[in-house]
């Protein structure tokens, strides 16, 4: 993503979207390990899940999406407890 400060191209494609659309499973895994957001959307509203080139990449993305959603819920629950919410 040369020339992009936030890792997103002008049409909204992220590095994980490009890797997924080209079927580069190991690159997708590396980007996810580094914190890539599976739910990020491009200008057409597509996510990496939408543009995945093959079933193995799709499986990696689906597993990461599930873990990312679980993590967001867990963090929210911790913040609620810390703030005294029930």
UniProtKB/TrEMBL annotation:
GO molecular function term, any single one: ubiquitin-protein transferase activity
GO BP annotations listed: protein K6-linked ubiquitination
Organism of provenance: Cafeteria roenbergensis
Gene3D superfamilies per UniProt: Ankyrin repeat-containing domain
Highest taxon above the source species: Eukaryota
ANK repeat extents: 11-43
PANTHER family, alphabetized: ANKYRIN REPEAT DOMAIN-CONTAINING PROTEIN 39-RELATED, BRCA1-ASSOCIATED RING DOMAIN PROTEIN 1
Protein's name according to its UniProt entry: Uncharacterized protein
Alphabetical keyword list: ANK repeat, Repeat
Record Pfam families: Ank_2 (PF12796)
């Amino acid at each position: 993503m040369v020339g992009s400060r936030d890792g997103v191209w002008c049409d909204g494609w992220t590095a994980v979207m490009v890797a997924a659309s080209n079927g580069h499973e190991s690159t997708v895994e590396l980007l996810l390990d580094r914190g890539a957001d599976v739910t990020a959307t491009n200008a057409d509203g597509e996510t990496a899940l939408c543009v995945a080139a093959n079933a193995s990449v799709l499986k990696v993305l689906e597993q990461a999406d599930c873990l990312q959603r679980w993590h967001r819920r867990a963090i929210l629950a911790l913040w609620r407890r810390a703030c005294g919410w029930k």
